[in-house]
Specification:
The structure holds 2 protein chains of 2 kinds.
Chain A: H1 17-42, H2 56-65, E1 72-74, H3 80-85, H4 90-98, H5 132-144, E2 152-157, H6 164-175, E3 180-186, E4 189-190, E5 193-194, H7 195-198, E6 214-219, H8 223-238, E7 244-249, H9 268-273, H10 279-289, H11 295-318
Parallel strand pairs in A: 1-2, 2-3, 3-7, 6-7
Antiparallel strand pairs in A: 4-5
Helix pairs in contact in A: 1-2, 1-10, 1-11, 2-8, 4-11, 5-6
Chain B: E1 7-11, H1 12-26, E2 30-34, H2 50-54, E3 59-61, H3 66-78, E4 82-86, H4 97-103, H5 107-110, E5 120-125, H6 140-143, E6 150-152, H7 157-169, E7 174-179, H8 182-185, E8 187-191, E9 203-206, E10 211-215, H9 218-232, E11 237-241, E12 244-246, H10 250-260, E13 263-270, H11 275-287, E14 296-300, H12 310-316, H13 320-331
Parallel strand pairs in B: 2-3, 2-4, 4-5, 5-7, 6-7, 10-11, 10-13, 13-14
Antiparallel strand pairs in B: 1-8, 6-12, 9-11
Helix pairs in contact in B: 1-7, 3-4, 9-13, 10-11
The chains are: A alpha/beta, B alpha/beta.
């Protein structure tokens, strides 16, 4: 895929400069939060973190296409930038990392398994592709109630496309022409299994044909291009045009999680060969060259983000864990006792 | 239930059908989805005619894919609908295991109450109908281990209506088990008014004072028949219909055991790790010194399933004669 990517002159898909700078900020914030998770893990302060380096362009472009207050996001665990991009506060990211009581899941969930009904962010588990039927069900509810102008954005990695529930969800959504966009963030790796061990086809998008579904492919390192494709797909879904499978190509620069060691299955040379795809420095350069932002303003933005992340890190760390007695709440509505 | 309220005699199929119909008619958030529930009206004709009355959007013939029947229903429930999913036969529920155990049962818990999953999964289960290996199983023990789920298995028409209404109203996922042999075998009065029976309450279906028999599903009917025979022999047996498997009614079981001092548990599902094991453990913990005899369990054998051939099925199923023998033995212990 590396050779397929050539950078054209800045195509803005109708985005104004403020929106372009917003995407850059979201990408820089995501990168900083990612780094913070790995730092805190290596410092022994949190047991686990999941990175998303390489996915920032997909997240910024998709989040900008998401209609806040109307659409529903059913993400997966690598979607930190997508979640902050639709309105989740960075403090929530840190509260989840530290597993504090004030985390929306009350410190129950792994980091990056966010919940936020108030912002249209559906709760997920870690089971790959198990969330996709839920996304389809939510889209069905929107359609049944005649809520045009709403759509579901469901995301997953390339590995998820091997799961039965991925297939079942694509099929169900296509049969019922549901308002949903399936976003495959193809980073070439499912933990240690490369794409060519996961599927015979070169591009995930080829699978769309088998469902009678529209498929689109986009350079995930380019947030503007991602916005263009995702905005079109979501608008189509919101206006009764049915589902789309979008494949956004990217590369996973970090190990799967802090508990993984990617040196056991891929070379450092391979990672370096993909370095030019890193969406963060790339988009920074694009915007500076286009005169959308100055280098000084980028530096100031990075300082502001780091100060903010430092602040929410301190605030989250200072807050308490859940109580041991919190283990027992919210099993069912009301009190819970298997024997009555 | 008011004594004088109007009622209709129904079999179990009709009771399920009547209750589903009322739900779809009275609450536009409800819908049914599953394999062949629309044009065919379900393989037992439970939803026959629904698609004409309520439309294909609320009576959904799904693709043949059980994981997504449940999974899509979970998403509908999380987004504010009240889906009633159907797994055509309980034997087909295994592909949906993760969606039930890993997703539906944990939605409220993992989101700390931010999202809930008010979902009903109905499925016919049980044997004695020449259903062979894949149309006869009991599945309750596989699911009753799971906090976050509720499981009911009523087998009288009036109980079906009350508990199905309760399941549909319930804010959490409920697995609703219907013993398929009772579908047309069992008839009874069903009050016409809307009512619910609380999930978790057992019912004494045949009072007695010399032995407590706890059962559910098809075997409740056989146990009552056996108890009636024993009554003719002067032996008094109390039959408790659990109706709900999770949560389960400790109060009714213990009150009976404290009266009879003997306990027999009868279920079609196999014995090892079954519902009876939990009941026996509970009674041993709570009422050990009330017991005048060892607790006995009369259950399915430890084989993967009942075979298609009649002798294999008959060997698997507990007959009414075998129940009566076990009751006599324990009463006289």
């Amino acid at each position: 895929m590396a050779e397929a990517i050539t950078k054209p002159a800045l195509e803005r898909h109708g985005l104004d400069e403020e929106q372009l700078r917003w995407m850059l900020r979201n990408m820089l914030l995501q990168r900083t939060l990612d780094n913070r998770g790995f730092q805190l893990n290596r410092q022994g302060k949190i047991p686990f973190a999941t990175g998303s380096e390489g996915h920032e362009g997909i997240h910024a472009g998709s989040a900008l296409a998401f209609a806040r207050g109307r659409d529903v996001l059913v993400p997966y665990y690598r979607d930190i930038g997508l979640c902050i991009g639709i309105g989740m506060e960075p403090l929530q990211v840190l509260l989840a990392m530290f597993a504090r009581a004030a985390d929306i899941s009350g410190g129950r969930q792994f980091p990056n398994h966010f919940t936020g009904r108030a912002i249209g962010l559906m709760s997920i588990s870690s089971i790959i592709a198990a969330h996709l039927p839920h996304a389809v069900g939510a889209a069905y509810a929107m359609k049944l109630r005649g809520e045009s102008g709403r759509a579901v954005l469901a995301s997953f990695g390339d590995g998820a496309t091997s799961e039965g529930e991925w297939h079942e969800s694509m099929n169900f959504a296509a049969v019922h022409a549901l308002p949903i966009v399936f976003l495959c963030e193809n980073n070439e790796w499912a933990i240690s299994t490369p794409r060519d061990r996961q599927m015979k086809v070169r591009d995930v998008v080829e699978k769309a044909d088998g469902y009678g579904m529209r498929g689109e492919i986009v350079d995930g390192s380019d947030p503007i291009a991602v916005y263009g494709v995702m905005n079109g797909a979501l608008e189509r879904a919101r206006s009764g045009g049915g589902p789309t499978l979008v494949e956004a190509k990217c590369y996973r620069f970090l190990s799967h999680t802090t508990d993984d060691d990617d040196r056991t299955y891929r070379t450092r040379e391979e990672i370096e060969r993909h370095r030019h795809l890193d969406p963060v420095p790339r988009f920074e350069r694009v915007l500076v060259e286009a005169g959308v932002i100055t280098s000084d303003d980028v530096s100031a933005m990075k300082r502001e983000i780091l100060a903010h992340v430092n602040d929410v890190t301190d605030r989250a760390e200072a807050l308490p864990y859940p109580l041991a007695s919190d283990l027992y709440t919210n099993v069912y509505e009301g009190t819970h006792e298997p024997w009555l | 239930m008011a004594v004088a309220s109007p009622s209709t005699v129904m079999n179990n199929v009709e009771a399920v059908r009547h209750t589903l119909y009322e739900a779809l008619k009275n609450d536009e958030r409800t819908l049914v989805l599953g394999e062949d529930v629309g044009a065919r009206g379900n393989v037992f004709l439970i939803t026959k005619g629904f698609i004409e009355e309520f439309g294909a959007e609320r009576v959904i013939d799904t693709p043949l894919a059980e994981a997504s029947i449940v999974g899509v229903a979970i998403g509908m429930a999380m987004e504010g609908l009240r889906p009633i999913a159907e797994i055509q036969f309980a034997d087909f529920i295994y592909p949906a295991f993760n969606q039930i155990v890993g997703e539906a049962a944990k939605t409220r818990y993992r989101s700390n109450g931010d999202y809930t999953c008010p979902l009903v999964i109905r499925t016919p289960y049980g044997g004695g109908v020449r259903g062979a290996l894949s149309h006869s199983v009991s599945i309750e023990a596989l699911f009753y281990h799971v906090p976050g789920l509720k499981i009911v298995a009523p087998s009288f028409p009036a109980d079906i209506k009350g508990l199905l209404n309760a399941a549909i109203d319930d804010p959490d996922p409920v697995l609703f088990l219907e013993h398929k042999k009772t579908y047309r075998l069992v008839k009874g009065e069903v009050p016409s008014e809307h009512y619910t029976i609380p999930i978790g309450l057992a019912d004494v279906k045949h009072p007695g004072d010399a032995l407590t028999v706890v059962s559910y599903g098809l075997y409740v009917h056989q146990a009552i028949e056996a108890a009636q025979r024993l009554a003719g022999e002067g032996l008094s047996v109390e039959v408790i219909d659990l109706r709900s498997i999770r949560p389960m009614d400790r109060t009714t079981i213990l009150a009976s055991v404290r009266k009879t001092h003997k306990l027999l548990i009868v279920h079609e599902d196999n014995k090892f790790g079954g519902i009876g094991a939990e009941i026996a453990a509970m009674v041993a913990e709570e009422a050990f010194f009330e017991l005048d005899a060892p607790i006995r369990r009369l259950c399915g054998p430890d084989v993967p399933a009942m075979g298609y051939a009649l002798p294999l099925e008959e060997e698997f199923m507990v007959s009414t004669d075998e129940m009566a023998d076990a009751m006599r033995e324990l009463v006289r212990y």
